[in-house]
Amino acid sequence: MSDPNDDADQSMGDSIIRDTTARIFADLADPQALNAAPNDRWKAPLWQALEEAGLTLAWVSEENGGAGADLADGFDILRVSGQYAAPVAIAETLLAGYFLDVAGIKCPSGPLTVAPVRLGDTLTCDDNGTISGIARAVPHVRDARAIVVIAEREADQVIALMAPGALGIADRQADMGGERADVTFDNVYPVEMAPVPEGWHADTANLFGAAVRAVQMTGALESVLELSVQYAGERVAFGRPIGKFQAVQHNLARLGGEVAAALAASGSAADTLARSTEFNEALLLEIASAKIRVGEAANDGAAIAHQVHGAIGWTAEHVLQRYTRRLWGWRDDFGAESHWAVMLGDMVTEAGADALWPMIAAR
Amino acid sequence: MQTAIRFDPLRLPPETAKLREEVRAFLAEEAALGTFDPNLGLRNSGYDRDFSRRVGGRGWIGMTWPKQYGGSERSYLDRYVVTEEMRAVAAPTWSHFVADRQSGPVILKYGTDEMKEEILPAICRGELCFAIGMSEPNSGSDLFAASTKAEREGSHYRVNGTKVWTSNAHRAEYMIALLRTSPATKENRRHGLTQFLVNMSLPGIKVKPIGQMPGYSDFNEVHLEDVMVPADHVLGEVDGAWKQATAELAYERSGPERFLETFYVLVALIRAMGSEPDLRASEGVGRLVAQLHTLRRMSVSVAGMLQAGREPVLEASIVKDLGTVWEQALPARARDLAAFAKPDLTNQADFEDLVEFATLVAPKLTIQGGTTEVLRGIIARGLGLR
């Protein structure tokens, strides 16, 4: 860290985990091929490859049967998964593994998911140790071997491993990607449960989830930019590729700016979390900013990408919607822009006007 | 499908923290002396020779340059810290800032030894103010349309023409001007322009201030009539100025001055809202801070790439595009968010005054130093569309 250049070069350098993830997704989850696939037969080999490479349990320590990789490595996996529109529960499994690990619960193999993902949904843990409540829009719940739940108790939170069998699962009307369903917990006993560890803040789970989504969304936005630039170079109208028109170029430049902001904001937040998971002002600033800014980039970026693609981008057969659906769905997970903006705004106004610059400059 | 755009999460090295403390202490001292009011932002006069001399005395001008020429060979990231601390409180840096950011580095790269020995140490001492003679009445964003002529006559060039929007020309000792030494060619319309160091005290130079919307006049028309500029005051390649611009633009476009110009309005808004803002204001402030933090992280990232010897032209253009659009919109956003502030707030009048002034300044932010349109063209090229 003494020489900033070393640091920069490090993060620019090759990462074996990133390359491995990219190779598996490129080989087994090409978005175009998946989009055209008549069924889900691609899913099992993809998951198996990810699992065999140790990627799915990256955030589980070795003593709990995982790969014990750094948080930074996990964020590399997540960015790549976003670049391929994450067709499986890789992010949810990483997150679930992390939560189980800090709770000292052994992580099962297979795809996992987490609940709740939507702020405002509260799952409670009763005195008798059962979990109740409704969690909306839980991703990949039908594929999940188990669901990891953060539930509220009177004085603290618990992390619980739940079997999907006893839950009410209802599909949602609109498909925002990620195979989401609403899940009802009605006095269900967890398979295992433990209180959150010491130092765990009421917002810690959401901060983790928000950082995970911000990084995935950034990966998806990178691909949305690439797809849009490529399409603008190929599609001919009025006698030339539409990418030669200044109006289209400027829209794509704006999309480039949004992707750049997403890269910077989520990269910085992930880096912060990877260095320390302690809940403090800096962590809140970084992750809240990332979720807000990447969410805004998803809003504006997806709109530009669809505009550039025209009607074809709005069809089921085109791959763009695999990305934009997820971007829109992910925006709402673990706190939407407005939620984090209020938290950040409260923190800033409470600290006072003169504290703003020192807070910004300290990052 | 990873994009070519890079913004690595670079952190300023821990050793910059001490420098930052020094700069803050210096600025607090200056504010206490009444040099400027950190709460007034652009309401302060930006120009103060004495202040610049004191900054120079601290070694904070030209700090990355060789010691031989008055610099202290510090890192570009050290310079970043000084620049952002000055900008955050709107310290009056106008007299030395252009020389520090642009003119000095150009002289360092292309100037004669004599020029370097004479001028650079004086810049470092805060004694020299520089102007940039780029735009002309018929050449703004389209720099390559510049027509102010420099014709070789023996050991000199005879210069005739008019530069416009030239900030600080009425105060500057020197101007680095883009002048036409040959016509453009059919193959290359960028050909034929040359950069010159022009001493503003030369006979034949007339400077006429231009009044501006906010009520001040820091920019000018500069008429050059038969001005004889020594031939060894050419900076770089004759007819080849277009080759020199690229790398310098990355420095010019990615600094903290590209998003902190109206920062004081955000500070004033937070002060006006107090510690219990309404929900709407809270959300608004949160979004503004998220963007500010993101812009700074982007800008620091580019500074790291520059320090590492890269030429992040695309990234720098993105920082200026996003940064200036944001700082331009900030006064209007602050006005929106303060709409339901309690009217009995004692600083309400101050706040409104600051917002109104910033509103008058805002239009220039996306024009100076490369318009939004020009930047988006560069970004489009970086994305492979041109």
Count of strand segments of chain A? 10
Count of DSSP-assigned helices of chain A: 12
Characterize the largest beta sheet of chain B: strand count, sense, and whether it forms a barrel. Answer: 4 strands, mixed
Instruction: Detail the poorly predicted runs of chain B.
Output: none
Portion of residues in helices of chain A?
40-55%
Structural class of the helices, strands and pairings of chain B? alpha+beta
Largest sheet of chain A: 4 strands, mixed
| Mean pLDDT across residues of chain A | 94
Strands across the major sheet of chain A, in which order?
A: 1-4-5-8
Kindly report the oligomeric state of this protein: heterodimer
The shape of chain A, in one word, is globular
Task: Give, in spatial order, the strands making up the sheet with the most strands of chain B.
Answer: 1-4-5-8
- Estimated share of beta-strand residues of chain A: 5-15%
Structural class determined from secondary elements of chain A: alpha+beta
Q: Count every helix of chain B, treating DSSP H or I runs of 4 or more residues as helices.
A: 11
* Regions with little confidence, pLDDT below 50 for 5+ residues of chain A: 1-13
The end-to-end span of chain A amounts to 14 Å
What are the salient characteristics of this protein?
heterodimer, A: 363 residues, alpha+beta, four-stranded mixed sheet, four-stranded antiparallel sheet, globular, disordered N terminus, B: 386 residues, 11 helices, 14% strand
Structure description:
The complex is a heterodimer of chains A (363) and B (386). With 363 residues, chain A is of the alpha+beta class. Chain A is built from twelve helices and ten strands. In chain A, helix 7 runs antiparallel to helix 10, helix 8 runs antiparallel to helix 9 and helix 9 packs antiparallel against helix 11. The N terminus of chain A is likely disordered. Chain B is α+β, with helices and mostly antiparallel strands and 386 residues long. In chain B, helix 6 runs parallel beside helix 9. Chain B is globular and about 70 Å long. Classes of the chains: A alpha+beta (363), B alpha+beta (386). At the A-B interface, helix 1, helix 7, helix 8, helix 9 and helix 11 of A face helix 3, helix 7, helix 8, helix 9 and helix 11 of B.
